[in-house]
Amino acid sequence: MKKLLGGFAAIVMSTTISGAPAHAQSKNSTPHALDCMAKAGFTHDMWVARRAGTNAQVAQYIACRDGVSVSQAKQTGRSDGNFDTFKPSKSSK
Predict the structure, then answer these.
(1) Would you give per-residue pLDDT tens digits along the chain (93 residues)?
(2) Fewer CB atoms inside 10 A, N or C side of the chain?
(3) For residue 85, which phi and psi values (nearest 5 degrees)?
(4) pTM of the predicted model as reported, rounded to 2 decimal places
(5) What range does the record give for the signal peptide (predicted)?
């Protein structure tokens, strides 16, 4: 009985441990994504801080990361909220 419980516990632990790293790394922190960030001119820290550069740089990064065209990357960026949408208000004089 002890061997059976010990074996079951080992299976549960190995499943839990082996499953964790697969989910721990997001698509924006893989070696490929980091290389694409460097090509677009920014770092992972800048991406996390939402200071990754111009919308064109972000679109270039997404296109590289996902292996899609820039127009498809723009659609992805818009739907994911990755683009700078700040519009300064017109000051009245």
Answers:
(1) 555 555 544 454 444 444 444 444 578 889 999 999 999 999 999 998 888 888 999 999 999 999 999 999 999 988 888 887 655 566 655
(2) C
(3) -110, 15
(4) 0.62
(5) 1-24
- Give the burial string for 36-48 (b: 16+ CB within 10 Å, else e): bbeebebeeeebe
* Token representation of residue 64: 């590289």
Taking each helix axis from N to C terminus, what angle separates 31-40 and 55-66, rounded to the nearest 10 degrees? 150
Extract the tokens encoding 60. 């270039």
Question: Residues 65, 53, 92, CA angle at the centre, nearest 5°?
Answer: 140
Residue 80 sits at φ, ψ, to 5 deg, of: -90, -5
